Structure formats: structure tokens, C-alpha cells
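Key result, reporting period 2: structure in, sequence out.
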């Protein structure tokens, strides 16, 4: 290992790219750098680095951690944090709560993720009012770091370390336990599978998955352990279907999204070792991930389209997809403009500068929520799920507008109709 990474994402990516023997050696070197990270940074990067090590090391290798912890200042932040996480994982809840208390005595961390972990341990030992206090703190916290750059750094570092066909495995704390149990069984995760812990398994969605594919991941998996409400895996499976349809239509062969339902290490081992790499994008994206999910998804799709083996103009998607168009039946539409007010995304517009009522639509903004369809008093709107990659999808197009009656035209039309009535006979209607 020529250099020892100190950034958390770089740590887990670099370790993931190594085989089991080299991984232990590298992890030992990284453990020795934690105090430096602790000196340099306040909280989150240190805790993320600790998490990265815990994720990458098999949990039965506590000897490495114990050796390191025994030789260091017990009250140092990395020691306390690692001891708290290890004690919690081992079910030693009182000890875990004690380490957390010592870590944040008098100064609760300004980090929602850490506060949630802390609150969970406090609730587990029955200190509910303390747990509620930590939760209140967590709700007031803004995430101190962006999750997206972490995904980007992970993939870039993994590739730089020689890793290929990266598969990001998103999981929550319950998933982390199953992953660690799999590590204890010996086989662990395949080297190309990089675990990424989230506070909830559904915290990352289609924007993150497509962003990861644009940044060069071969595939993305989400681990459902059965501890979450059943609606979450169901919703994730549906969303993954849309994302996979997009990737397949663009010619990226193979399966890019996987929902792994695994409540125990044996099930996870079977699922994760059965994953096959899919075709990744030729050149990883360099765009800056936006805080707006819709923008991120659009940037990712643009990049995947730009390098697609089979670029598309329109991709048909299954019902419920968050991309699509609407059609307005002009014969039924009275241009009441109720749908304009109902659309939460500003996808339907009127035209304040126009002389006559006009209904316009920007497809790229439509999330197919169906509110316009439900609001229309004339049942004039129909939704069609699809992804338009045409440039026009970002421009307003006219769905309906009032016809302009020039004075005199109306009389002319009435006159023509009278003439028609005068000329028509019953014979004209016979077969
Ligand atoms: S589509 Fe329906 S809601 Fe929208 S303007 Fe026409 S009639 Fe009104
Ligand atoms: S489906 Fe939703 S987002 Fe799309 S135009 Fe209708 S109200 Fe707007």
C-alpha cells in the first residue's frame, strides 16, 4: 500500500479493493492514522473513518482493533467511538451507552447520523428521556456533509486503486449487523461490493442510484433485512425497475439495480455472491451532485445518455414512474386552468402574456403525481409515464389554447352553416 488514505470514503474504497490478507495489513496502517484525523478534524470525518474501518474489517478480527485500542488513550475520541460501536454490536448496551456519554459529555455532536446512533443506544438501555433529547438535537441538525460527494469519492478512489465493476451496497444499521455477521463467517462480501451505510435503507433513491451509475458504478444494491416496514422494499423494488429500464434502454447491458432481501448472513451471502457485474458507463461523470434530487437525476441521465451504447429520444416506463408526460383532450378542456394551480412542480403553466387563455407544459418537470388529472373537472387529462431525452422536454409546449375569434368570422361561420342546412336533403343521409 503506497500511501494511506485518510478520507473516510477513500478508506473504505481502498480496503474494498484489496484481498482479505492485504486488507488487514492496510487496515492496521489506517488505524494508526486515526489520531491524526482526530487532531485535524472535528467530528464527522473522524467518525466516518472509524465507520469505514468497521465496515471493511471482519468483525471477528476484533484482535486488531483491541490491540490498537489497548495501546491508546482510552478517552480519545476514536477510542471512545470505536469502543461504543463495538460494544453496541456485541450487545453490551450499558457499556456502549457509557462510551457514548463519555464521548459527548457536555457537548452533544452537531451531527444527525451520530446523534441517531447515540439515541438508539440510550433507548436500548431504557434512558428514554435522554434518547428523546438526542433525537430533538438530531432533528435540528443539518447534515454536516453531503452524502453525494462521498459516493463520488468512493467510486473514484476504488477505480484509482485498481478496483473494477464497483457495486455499491446501501444498507442501514440492521444491514450492517448482517454484513458483519457475514464477515465473521469468513467469506464476507465480494471485493467489488462496497458497503455504504445510511440512516435508513430507503434514504437513497433513484437519483442516487442513477448518479452512482453515472459516476462509474457497475451496479447498485440495497439491502432489506426485514426490520423495515414492508412498504419500503416494495417502493424500492418499483423505483429500481424504472432505473433499470432506463439503463437497459440506453444499452447498458446487465442488471444494474438489485434489491437484496436478506435477514441473515447465509441469505446475504447467497444473494451478494450471485450478483453479476453489469456494463458500466465508458467515462465516469464529473458533474457536481446537486442538493436537488430531480436535478441530480437529470444530470446523471444526461451523462448516461451521452455515453450510451444506444442513445434514445424517448423511453417508455411502467405506470408509477416519476417521469412522464400528460395529454389534454382539447374537446373536453374548458381552459379553466385549475390544473395549473394544482401542479406542485410548476410543470403546467398558463401564459400571463398571452391574449387568450393558454395551457402549457414542461415535461422535464413532471413527476407524474397525478394531481392535475384528479383536479380536472372535465376529465380531460391523461398521464403517460415515459422519459423524454429530447431537448424539447425542457421547453414549454402548448397543450391547449383558446382560438382567437376575429370579429366578423363568427357571422361568416353561421352563414356557411345556414347554407349547408338549406342544401342538405334527407336523401343525403341514406346509404
Ligand atoms: S385540462 Fe382540465 S383542469 Fe386543466 S384547464 Fe383544461 S379543463 Fe381545466
Ligand atoms: S402529473 Fe403532477 S407534476 Fe405532472 S403535470 Fe400533473 S400535477 Fe404536475
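The corresponding designed sequence is given below.
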Amino acid at each position: 500500500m503506497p500511501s494511506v488514505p485518510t478520507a473516510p470514503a477513500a478508506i473504505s474504497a481502498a480496503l474494498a479493493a484489496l484481498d482479505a490478507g492485504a486488507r488487514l495489513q492496510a487496515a492496521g496502517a489506517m488505524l494508526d492514522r486515526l489520531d491524526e484525523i482526530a487532531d485535524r478534524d472535528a467530528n464527522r470525518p473522524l467518525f466516518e473513518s472509524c465507520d469505514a474501518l468497521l465496515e471493511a474489517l471482519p468483525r471477528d478480527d476484533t484482535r486488531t482493533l483491541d490491540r490498537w485500542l489497548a495501546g491508546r488513550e482510552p478517552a480519545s475520541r476514536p477510542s471512545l467511538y470505536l469502543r461504543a460501536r463495538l460494544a453496541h454490536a456485541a450487545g453490551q448496551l450499558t457499556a456502549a451507552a457509557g462510551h457514548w456519554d463519555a464521548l459527548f459529555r457536555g457537548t452533544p455532536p452537531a451531527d444527525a447520523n451520530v446523534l441517531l446512533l447515540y439515541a438508539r443506544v440510550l433507548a436500548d438501555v431504557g434512558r428514554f428521556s435522554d434518547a428523546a433529547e438526542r433525537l430533538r438535537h438530531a432533528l435540528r441538525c443539518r447534515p454536516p456533509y453531503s452524502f453525494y460527494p462521498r459516493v463520488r469519492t468512493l467510486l473514484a478512489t476504488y477505480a484509482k486503486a485498481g478496483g473494477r465493476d464497483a457495486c455499491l451496497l446501501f444498507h442501514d444499521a440492521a444491514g450492517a449487523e448482517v454484513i458483519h455477521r457475514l464477515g465473521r463467517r469468513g467469506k464476507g462480501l465480494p471485493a467489488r461490493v462496497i458497503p455504504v451505510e445510511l440512516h435508513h435503507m430507503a434514504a437513497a433513491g433513484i437519483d442516487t442510484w442513477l448518479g452512482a451509475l453515472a459516476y462509474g458504478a457497475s451496479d447498485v444494491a440495497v439491502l432489506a433485512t426485514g426490520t423495515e416496514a414492508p412498504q419500503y422494499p416494495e417502493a424500492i423494488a418499483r423505483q429500481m425497475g424504472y432505473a433499470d429500464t432506463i439503463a437497459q434502454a440506453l444499452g447498458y447491458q446487465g442488471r444494474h439495480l438489485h434489491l437484496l432481501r436478506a435477514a441473515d448472513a447465509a441469505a446475504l451471502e447467497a444473494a451478494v455472491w450471485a450478483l453479476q457485474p453489469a456494463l458500466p458507463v465508458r467515462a465516469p461523470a464529473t458533474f457536481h451532485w446537486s442538493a436537488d434530487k430531480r436535478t441530480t437525476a437529470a444530470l446523471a441521465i444526461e451523462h448516461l445518455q451521452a455515453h450510451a451504447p444506444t442513445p434514445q429520444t424517448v423511453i417508455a416506463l411502467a405506470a408509477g414512474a416519476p417521469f412522464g408526460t400528460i395529454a389534454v383532450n382539447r374537446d373536453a378542456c374548458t381552459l379553466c386552468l385549475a390544473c395549473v394551480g394544482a401542479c406542485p412542480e410548476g410543470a403546467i403553466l398558463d401564459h400571463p402574456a398571452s391574449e387568450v387563455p393558454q395551457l402549457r407544459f414542461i415535461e422535464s418537470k413532471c413527476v407524474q403525481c397525478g394531481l392535475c388529472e384528479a383536479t380536472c373537472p372535465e376529465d380531460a387529462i391523461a398521464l403517460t409515464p415515459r422519459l423524454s431525452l429530447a431537448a424539447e422536454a425542457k421547453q414549454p409546449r402548448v397543450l391547449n389554447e383558446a382560438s382567437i375569434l376575429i370579429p366578423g368570422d363568427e357571422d361568416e361561420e353561421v352563414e356557411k352553416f345556414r347554407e349547408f342546412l338549406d342544401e342538405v336533403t334527407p336523401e343525403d343521409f341514406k346509404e
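Residues 326, 342-343, 345, 347-348, 366-372, 383 surround iron/sulfur cluster (ligand 2) (CB under 6 Å). The beta strands are 167-171, 193-197, 219-224, 257-261, 314-316, 324-328, 348-349, 358-361, 381-388, 397-401. This case is discussed further under Risks and Mitigation.
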